[in-house]
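Good morning C.,

I know you're traveling, so I'll keep this short. The sequence:
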Amino acid sequence: TNVVKAKPGLIARINYTISLLSDTICYTSDGSPDDFVIGMDNVESGLHEGITYMRVGEKAKILMTSNMAAGLVGDYDQIPPQSSLIFDVELMDVK
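The tokens, ready to paste straight into the viewer:
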């Protein structure tokens, strides 16, 4: 079993679905994983923190209040201002 743990400075590859508390889906990787540098890249701060509790192959549901997610303004597209978000995340790999 792969027990590699995500930590700041590593690149995380994730599959994800981001939804509002109403279950409205805002974004999904739709089977095409995205990469980001843990602790550095411009993704929600709650994702940077939540991913560090995960190991490769694990799935998690991370609930973020607006201050850990898209903040006061949302993203001007799919996420309304001051929205709490649910991230369904699968950590595919770290390198």
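Safe travels,
E.
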